[in-house]
Amino acid sequence: MGIAITLQQYLSNNGVPYDFLVHDHTGTSIRSAEASHIRGDSLAKAVVLRRRDGYILAVLPASRQVKLDEIGGWLRQPVGLATEEEITSLFPDCEPGAVPPIAAAYGLKSLVDESLEAQPDVYFEAGDHRTLIHVSGAQFHKLMERIPHGRFSIAPKKQAENKIQPPSALDDELWKYDIG
C-alpha cells in the first residue's frame, strides 16, 4: 500500500519535505519503531478517540500510553477509544491500526503530547504497517503548531510491575479463613 494518498496529497500541498522508511510488517507502532531501528520516543502514534461531538486524534510517542481521563478533563466530556469500524470509516485509505497523526489531512481535530516537541526527528505511520514517514523535528513542530499541546501520556508500566505480587504479610487477619 505505501503512503496513504490523502496523507501524501496533504504533505505535498503544504510543502512538507519528507522521506520514508520501509520495514517488515508490524502490528503496533512500538514494533514499527523496533523494526525500523528508531526510538519509540521519536515515533508519533495516533490514537483515535470518540467524544460526544465526533472524534479527535491524540498524538503521542509510540513509547507512551494515552491517559483518557486527562484528555476527557481537557475536553470537559468523556472520551473513549474509537472502534475499528469507526477508524476505518475515518481513514478509508489506511490499513486498520496504521493511522497517520496528521489529523488535518482527514478533516479531524487533534491534540499533541508535548513530549514529542524535543525530538530532533519524528517518524509516523504512513497508512500501512510497513512504511514510516520521516520529517525533521522542526517540520513536525510546524505541522503541529496550531494544535493544542499538553501532557496526556504516561510511560507504560514495566512487565514486572504488571504482575500480581504475592501478599507480603500472609499472617494478616485477612488471610485467616476456613476453606473447609
Sum this structure up briefly.
The protein has helices at about 5-15, 30-35, 70-75, 85-90, 135-145, 160; strands spanning about 20, 45-50, 55-60, 65, 80, 110-115, 120-125, 130-135, 150, 155. It has about 180 residues and is an alpha/beta fold.
Explained architecture:
- There is one protein chain.
- The protein is of the alpha/beta class and about 180 residues long.
- It has one domain: YbaK/aminoacyl-tRNA synthetase-associated domain (YbaK protein), CATH 3.90.960.10.
- About 25% of the residues lie in helices and about 25% in strands.
- It is built from 6 helices and 10 strands; from the N terminus they run H-E-H-E-E-E-H-E-H-E-E-E-H-E-E-H.
- It has helices at about 5-15, 30-35, 70-75, 85-90, 135-145, 160; strands spanning about 20, 45-50, 55-60, 65, 80, 110-115, 120-125, 130-135, 150, 155.
- Strands 1, 2, 3, 5, 6, 7, 8 and 9 form an 8-stranded mixed sheet that branches. Strands 4-10 form a two-stranded antiparallel ribbon.
- Strand 2 (about 45-50) and strand 3 form a beta hairpin.
- The longest helix has 9 residues, at about 5-15.
- The radius of gyration is 19 Å and the shape is globular.
- The model is unreliable at about 160-180 (pLDDT under 50).
CATH class annotation: Alpha Beta
The total count of helices amounts to 6
What's the domain count? 1
* End-to-end distance: 62 Å
Using the CA coordinates, give the radius of gyration: 19 Å
What keyword list fits this structure?
alpha/beta, 25% strand, globular, disordered C terminus
Element layout with pairings:
Elements lengths: L4 H9 L5 E4 L6 H8 L6 E9 L2 E8 L3 E2 L1 H8 L4 E2 L2 H7 L18 E5 L7 E5 L5 E6 H8 L4 E2 L2 E2 L4 H4 L18
Parallel strand pairs: 2-7, 3-6, 6-9
Antiparallel strand pairs: 1-8, 2-3, 2-5, 4-10, 7-8
